[in-house]
Amino acid sequence: MSAPAAGIAARRTASEAQPLRPRRSRPRVSAGFALAQALAFAVIMAIACVTLWPVYVSVDFVVLVVVSLVVGAAIALAGTFLRLSSFWLLLATVVAFGLFGVAVAVPSQAQYGVLPTVDGLRELVQGVALSWKQLVTITLPVGSYQALLVPAFVLVLPGTVIGLSTALRSSRAELALVPPVVVFVAGIILGSSQALLPIVTGLALLAASVLWLVWWRLRRRRLAIDRLTRSTLRATGASANPHRSGNRAVARRALGGTLATLAIASLVAIAAATVLGPAGARWVARDAVVKPFDPRDYVSPLSGFRAYEQKPRVDSPQLTVTGLSSGDFVRIATLDTYDGVDYSVGSARASGDSGTFTRVPTSFDQSKVRGSQASIQVTVDGYDGVWLPTVGKLETIDFAGGNAANLRDAFFYNDTTGTAAVVGGVSKGVSYSLTSVVPRQPSKAQLEALTPGSETVPTPTGVPATLKSALADYVNGVTGQGARLQAALDGLKKNGYVSHGVSKNEPVSRSGHGEERLSQLFTDPLMIGDAEQYSASAALMADQLGFPARVVLGFQAKRGADGSPESFVGSDITAVIEVDTAQYGWVTLDPNPTPRKIPDTTKTDPNKVSQPQSVVQPPPQEADPPNDQTQPQSKQDTPALPPAWIAIVLTIVKIGGWVLLVAGIIMAPFLAIVGVKASRRRRRRRARDPSRRITGGWQEFQDSVLDHGVTPPPSATRTEVAGAVGGSRPAVLARVVDRSVFAPETVDEGDADRVWKAVGEMRTQLDSGLTRWQRFVAAVSTRSLRGYHGRKASNR
């Protein structure tokens, strides 16, 4: 008989002779026990859901958890008593998800509050895939906003079905704790960086889980003892019932020890968390997700200041605002980052809170802001742009009109700066209402007593030296931080003149607020500019004096405003500054000079040389044409492009690297198997005892036989293994190994080397006649690594 034929026959014989393994029986559970398990598991899952509470903070979330636990437990109990397969459990879960999902996860789309609708089902299905990212890019808490309850429903309902089914039907009931742990961890990842009672919730989940595990272990032990006792009684013919007093004593000791251990562990955990707890907030998923709105993608709104002073905007209505009080400021945008070119909202080089905009699901809690409540209605007339005008610190906002839902979905807000934005922008006809808190402002007499607050803004760069010199002159001899700030603002108002430079009747005044433009402001014979330059200069001066400062662009309500509708035209645009103070928080200050007549520079400049009249008068000099955007005030040399062949080589290297990476990931498991076998072969061949080296050689050959698909009979001897392989050389090798094991003579080193040489040749012979794929399958086979039930017998 040939070797392959012998191997096939041996495998068939071994398969037919393979004894059947007894299946582990699953004890049937009573209805009372199943209900008790469902209640205990619901408690554990409810504790795990506590980490999701800060994400929602809504009664709708509580309803979702209760419904999910009840429905999930019903499905698991029905599957247990009806002996349903996993397919039917999955089908029942999917049906329940669609039947109850709209009512509890998308309540705004449920008809009569309970019945699913087509739109609700569409949002429910989409939310399974899309709502996770939305949840980590929106301001918490989210309540029942849109379909953001879907992630919680996806976690709790299937988790309850899987966990309780595992507890009631699996022989490894401890695995039922995996779903609650997943929910607990998911709540941390999806939640806020500020944890809600982390020690209490963690210890509560640990205690409930450990007690539940102990309960299961005691039950399994009691059932095993009862089976053994009944078997003994049947064997002896006795009819007495098993005695349970021992079980009760063991249960009392186990529960007592568990409670004592939990108490000690809790005390140690609380002490360790108090002493060694992290100093800062924890890292969560929303810290790593790129926000969908980035203010750095847009041009600085202060750069377009002059556009409001030009036609057609200058005289056309921009906004109509109702509900303003005297002195209220309609904020378009807050800019806190200066880089020597312009003031911008946030910074690419500094990851501050001012550059982080989030969606607003429900409302902002402004209870800590000291000020007055305001209800504002805004109608957009001629204004357009991504920045949405607001007033004070926003609490709620509601859009009106047919496009309200889309505007609401595109609305983003930064509570640090009070700046709002709508992706895609707003235009004429948009109307909305908002409620806010207008912070209380100090009186003019209180300004001199102000001191800097603790807020931070990105450190300005490119501050002109002439600005610092002018600031030194303004505050010379003035003491007190608030008084020095007031002196700086007074200096700007005293020396400054207002000109937009957009008409022939105005002196030349260039737009822009970069380093070169601000330097010119303080070096020209007359300080001429507008709110764009004065607000930027004032914010930089305040920063030099130690006050965190930022520029605010918007419209100033007229004095005496009483809440009636007020229309703002383009010429009403202005820019002020806000400085952070220890006494009042962010305080709004107006650094702009009062418009007044500008003197003739030819009469005031002593260095101006009078030129004689010429016969032909030169044409009058016209003002520089207005410019809507700030011109770049710094140039960067365009780097030379690398040669084309370098780009081609880099592309090839990149592609090759990805190919190698993917190939390495795919081949890693197979390489690991080959490496383990090589290590095992090296260990056997390098054994110090020659007899062990010979035995190891046989084991290596037998493992190769197994990996090549030949299965010897159960408990086969070496001779029987050699017979299953076929041929004379395996039989000779078997006799040599048997003699080395059982003979009284000492084994020679040369015999061991000859055995390993023969093993190598026979391993090569096993590969002869096989295809490359068959050799690969044998090389990565794990049959020899998983062990062989007859090996101990064959190694006798």
Automatic annotation (TrEMBL):
Keywords: Membrane, Transmembrane, Transmembrane helix. Residues 484-591 form the Transglutaminase-like domain. Residues 44-441 form the Protein-glutamine gamma-glutamyltransferase TgpA N-terminal domain. Residues 627-637 have a biased composition (Polar residues). Coiled coil: none annotated. InterPro entries: Bact_TGase-like (IPR052901), Papain-like_cys_pep_sf (IPR038765), TgpA_N (IPR021878), Transglutaminase-like (IPR002931). This is Transglutaminase superfamily protein. It comes from Frondihabitans australicus. The lineage of its organism: Bacteria, Bacillati, Actinomycetota, Actinomycetes, Micrococcales.
